[in-house]
Amino acid sequence: MFLGSSIPHRKTDTMAAVKVKLPDFLDTWPWQRELNPHYEEAKREANEWAHSFGFFDAKSQDAFDRCEFGECRSVQSPMPR
Questions:
Q1: How many domains does the chain have?
Q2: Strand ranges in the chain using DSSP code E only, listed in sequence order
């Protein structure tokens, strides 16, 4: 996965594009992956809530939605306690 970012490298540079390669952590994940059973319902409700604020334009909202922050958290805590 590549993430693009603009980071000033020197005071004389304006902004230079930098590519950062992140490893695929799930490719070598040593534990069984299991989603929290409430994930789909919570995802729907959280997305409706986030969209209700109207923080992003359509393109930015689409990018935010594709991040799947909830899925990451759901894998971290697969079973409610």
A1: 1
A2: 2-7, 16-21
